[in-house]
C-alpha cells in the first residue's frame, strides 16, 4: 500500500490544487495545522466534547488549504520547490528517481510516523512532554522530508535550467 498516493487521493489533489499548494502561504499555514490540531484536542480538558468543533475546523482547513491560495508568484521559493519535489516523488512509479532520495523520503516518513505514538499517548493522558516529543518527531520528520523534496526537485531539474523553470511535475 502506498500511503503517499492514498493521502493524495484522500485530499483530492489535482494539478490545480497542487499548483496552488506550491504557494508559500499554503505550505507554511499547513505546517501550523498539526500544532493547532494538538491544541484543539488538548482543549478537551477544558471544554469537553466541544473540542470537536476546533478539531473539525482544523480538519476542514487542512482539506481546503491547498485550494485557498493563488499559484505562487515565484516558482523558486523553498515552499514551491518542496511541493514540486513531492509531486515528483509521488510519480516515482512512472519516473525513475535517484534511489538515495527514495530511501531518505521513506526514512523521514518513518521518523514522522514514530512521532504518532508519543503524540497520541501524550494527548490521551494530557501530558506535555510526550505530546511535545511526538509533535517534534512528526513535524521535524515532515519538514526534513520537505527539504529533501527540494533536493530531489533540484536534482531532477538538472543543470543549465533557470531557477524559475520547474521540472514537469505533471507527467511521469
First and last CA, distance: 19 Å
- Name the overall outline: globular
Discrete helix count: 10
Q: Major sheet, described briefly?
A: none
The low-pLDDT segments are 159-165
The percent range for helix content is over 70%
Estimated share of beta-strand residues: under 5%
| Total domain count | 1
* Helix/strand order: HHHHHHHHHH
What's the pLDDT, averaged over the residues?
A: 89
What would you call the structural class?
mainly alpha
- Radius of gyration over C-alpha positions, nearest whole angstrom: 17 Å
Would you report the number of β strands? 0
What can you tell me about this protein's structure?
The protein is mainly α and 172 residues long. It has one domain. Helices cover 72% and strands 0% of the residues. It has helices spanning 3-10, 15-21, 24-31, 33-42, 44-47, 52-68, 78-90, 99-114, 116-125, 128-157. The longest helix is centred in the C-terminal third of the chain and has 30 residues, at 128-157. The radius of gyration is 17 Å and the shape is globular. Mean pLDDT is 89; it is low at 159-165.
